Amino acid sequence: MTSPIPQQKLAELRAALLAEQQELADERERLMEAVRAYTQDSEGHGDYGDNPADQATEVFEQEKDLALVDALTARSEQVAHALRRMDEGTYGICEVCGQPIPIERLEALPSATLCIRDANNMRGRA
Ligand SMILES: [Zn+2]
Fold first, then answer.
1. How far is the CA of 112 from the centre of ligand 1 (A)?
2. How far is residue 32 from each of residues 23, 98, 109, measured CA to CA in Å?
């Protein structure tokens, strides 16, 4: 089975995916730097015992950033996955039911590898 998407459209969607991958990488790098800054800060001063409230805030901020990093990593894996499917020629075909994914959906969400119905089913199970 080959991708049902016309070459021209495929090129556009690939460009969109590559741009998204770059954006996600930049954002991830920015967050990682923020997390590293927290860590260096705590090592440098060693004064966590003095102010538990500050410590709690910093740990919270750091955990929030790490959760965002995880989310960005998951998104960029999904984008990479979609790009791999493009290379394999299976992009635009639902991974669950094997039906073509409507082009409107791919334009709205180039990293989609499931049709709307199966994406909703997945969410329901999660
Ligand atoms: Zn499907």
1. 11
2. 14, 38, 26
The domains found in the chain, sorted by start residue, are 7-125 (1.20.120.910)
**Residue-wise pLDDT tens digits, 78-98:** 999 999 999 999 999 999 999
Classify burial at 66, counting beta carbons within 10 Å of its beta carbon; exposed 0-12, middle 13-18, buried 19 or more: middle
| Residues in Cβ contact with 37 at an 8 Å cutoff, skipping those fewer than 6 apart | none
Cα of 96 to ligand 1 centre, how many Å? 5
Q: Spell out the residues 6+ positions from residue 32 whose beta carbon is closer than 8 angstroms to its own.
A: 69
pTM for this one?
0.81
Q: What does the block give as tokens for 44?
A: 């440098």
